[in-house]
Design goal:
about 25% strand; seven-stranded mixed β-sheet; alpha/beta; about 230 residues; globular
Length: about 230
């Protein structure tokens, strides 16, 4: 992908989430119960934790009982504002995931829940992971999830944008879609990961594999690939 276009999509994603922040948060008030085990199994008492792309801060609920030093960051000012009001006992700040304002070897755990698929281009996704690795202490863990395109709508969009790409009518990469959101019909950028692509990318960033799997909600209409890696 042309990097000027990738930067445009990155800025668009930030502004899109500012525009839909209230509606988005109203539909994402509770953390996904099917991924709670990633916090139960991997968090230790007193860990210094970075929630990278925290949105409205809902996953803080899975952290607070372990007395961790939690910090949530997001590029959306509106979502951070909502997070601060919803969880006044936690720390949140606006920050760029591609240029984290933290020293090397600072965090014990970095969580990135449903974020990486919003990063356009292989180059920027690698930069995202390398920044996460930089701020992790030696042997620290990166716990990440990305969407599996299981819904009919997402499969249709993937087919549509694949055809457009093959016809030379799209500037997106293969595997990319623009998904209309809610009443606003704002088109959010997503990249569809395969398990192999996710593994290869995290290894290229210098991480070592610990766990990989697929989680679903009770209805099966929300599916995420999860990956636990260590520095």
């Amino acid at each position: 992908m042309d990097q000027n276009y990738a930067q445009y999509l990155l800025a668009k994603t930030r502004e899109d989430y500012n525009l839909i922040a209230e509606e988005f948060s109203s539909k994402r008030q509770e953390p996904w119960p099917e991924i709670k085990f990633l916090f139960n199994d991997e968090l230790a008492f007193g860990d210094r934790v970075l929630d990278l792309g925290c949105g409205n801060g809902r996953f803080f609920e899975f952290c607070k009982d372990k007395n961790v030093d939690y910090l949530g960051i997001d590029s959306s000012e509106k979502l951070i504002g909502i997070a601060q009001k919803s969880h006044p006992q936690a720390k949140f700040q606006v920050a760029d995931a591609l240029s984290l304002p933290f020293p090397d070897n600072h965090f014990d755990k970095v969580y990135s829940i449903a974020v990486l698929h919003h990063i356009p281009s292989a180059e920027l996704r690698l930069q995202f992971l390398e920044e996460a690795k930089r701020v992790l202490r030696p042997d620290g863990l990166l716990i990440s999830t990305v969407w599996k395109f299981s819904q009919v709508k997402m499969r249709f969009l993937l087919f549509k944008f694949t055809i457009l790409k093959l016809l030379g009518l799209s500037r997106l990469d293969l595997g990319d879609v623009l998904d209309p959101w809610g009443k606003t019909e704002i088109k959010r950028y997503y990249h569809r990961f395969s398990k192999k692509e996710l593994i290869d990318l995290t290894k290229k960033a210098g991480f070592k594999m610990k766990k990989l799997g697929l989680v679903k909600n009770e209805k099966g209409n929300r599916q995420n690939i999860y990956l636990v890696t260590w520095k």
